[in-house]
Amino acid sequence: MKILICDKVAPEVVEELKKLGDVVYKTGMEPEELKREISDAHVAVVRSATKLRRDVLQHAKNLKLIVRAGVGLDNIDLEAAKEMGITVRNTPAATSISVAELVLGLMLSAARMLPMAYSSMKAHRWEKKKFQGTELFGKTLGIIGFGRIGREVAKRALGFGMKVLWYDVVDVETELDVKRASLEELLSSSDYITLHVPLLPQTKYLINRENIGKVKDGAVLINAARGGVVEEAAVLEALNSGKLSYYCVDVYEKEPTDNFALIDHPGVIPTPHIGASTREGQLRAGMEVVRIIREFFS
Ligand code: NAD
Predict the structure, then answer these.
(1) What CATH architecture is 2-91+279-297?
(2) What ranges do the domains of the chain cover?
(3) DSSP class of 256
(4) Distance from residue 206's CA to the centre of ligand 1 (Å)
(5) Cys bridge to 276: 11, 94, 95, 268, which one at CB 3.0-4.6 A?
(6) Cα 83 to Cα 71: distance, rounded to the nearest angstrom
(7) Shortest-distance atom of ligand 1 to CA 202
(8) Closest CA to 13 of 298, 288, 218, 207
(9) With 90 as the cut, is the pLDDT of residue 72 above it?
């Protein structure tokens, strides 16, 4: 069995996969090389970088299984895979804690202006007065999408003494001390708003020019879900008008982003899509990939 690993995985994971088959581990392949390598592979392991579109999958004559180490499947043509009888699996739970911790980090970055204080110190300045921040304690966090990551964020925010509102299209049973709200109510009463929905036609521009005006003055918006769920142009306007004080963002409408009007705005705290990128998260995701492949062929 040929297992083609197309994106970076932990060395421990490669060692485990070698016990299951012949491993070819090549990252950053050009389309032609990818087509060549996938033509006789039985399993393909990807993260988000490798795009398995129809034109690539057409060459995959032996492929039975694609495993995405991570959550989003937007880099795989699911329709084409289905037509060709290829099973597609992912590891949705493995990196929830990593993303949730990044979200708390971004919230603290905004509350205490940590990136700005860092840059100021590195420029050999001592601007103590400029960096009086605010506490998370007692503030309201609105979580849009109360799934795995949304609930992990809630647990941590409660630990900081925040009030938590959540909005979702499905009923979510929870023992956490949180309150369900309508989207409108959440937007108008939250000091911090964080998104944890998948990118679907229904969630495209979920935060947009129309509803961004309903947020509390000076609210902080955090997006570590997917670029397309927030309309970047609307965010920029809301930052310029002071409606939003900060936009903490890990994901972009286009990646790598070239929206430098957004990145350069002093109210934007950006990271380069690193939500799931922790040692623990990637190891958990990789070991889940090994388990999926082992079970699929047993
Ligand atoms: P999940 O499926 O557990 O939760 C998503 C929730 O969103 C569900 O409860 C669902 O009902 C809800 N939802 C769907 N459509 C909605 C809508 N229109 N309005 C309100 N709620 C809606 O997923 P998860 O594991 O919590 O991950 C959430 C998203 O986070 C992923 O889809 C992915 O895009 C993103 N993500 C980002 C990173 C990163 O590196 N920044 C890493 C992992 C996941």
Answers:
(1) 3-Layer(aba) Sandwich (3.40)
(2) 2-91+279-297, 96-270
(3) S
(4) 12
(5) 95
(6) 22
(7) 18
(8) 288
(9) no
